[in-house]
Design brief:
Strand content: under 5%
Number of strands: 0
Shape: elongated
Oligomer: single chain
Largest sheet: none
Keywords: Membrane, Transmembrane, Transmembrane helix
Radius of gyration: 30 Å
Order of helices and strands: HH
Protein name: Transmembrane protein
Distance between the termini: 48 Å
Organism: Arthrobacter burdickii
Helix content: 55-70%
Structural class: mainly alpha
């Protein structure tokens, strides 16, 4: 489960960097009319970029440490289950009263 979570985190970080590379400048251009919003967006990107690098490194280490190992299980055939006795007939009051 840890391997899958680390792989998912790497996908998310990769998508973030792809968005940043392709659309980050358009976001800043759209916020040009409000200096406060532009400063907040720049601050958010300045915080998220180093955090994403650290998260990607930790996810890569997690994937390397918890990689999947080949299955070494042995299949053991179990004896067949005994046959069940036939079902008992229903009580007399179940007859036609139940629809």
């Amino acid at each position: 489960m840890r391997y899958r979570r680390a792989r998912s985190l790497l996908y998310v970080v990769g998508l973030f960097w792809l968005w940043l590379w392709l659309g980050g400048a358009a976001l800043m251009e759209g916020l040009y009319h409000s200096p406060l919003h532009a400063v907040l967006a720049m601050y958010a990107l300045a915080v998220v970029i180093p955090v994403s690098i650290a998260a990607a490194l930790l996810a890569g280490i997690q994937m390397a440490l918890t990689r999947r190992r080949p299955y070494t299980a042995v299949v053991v055939k179990l004896p067949a289950a005994p046959q069940q006795p036939p079902l008992q007939p229903a009580h007399w009051w179940y007859g036609e009263k139940v629809s």
